[in-house]
Amino acid sequence: MNREDRIAHNEALFREVNERVVQVTDPGGGERVDFLCECGDPDCTATIALTRRQYEELRSDATFFAVVYGHVAPTVEDVVFIGDGFQIVRKHPDQRDIARQTDPRSR
Question: What is the pTM of this model?
Answer without folding.
Answer: 0.89
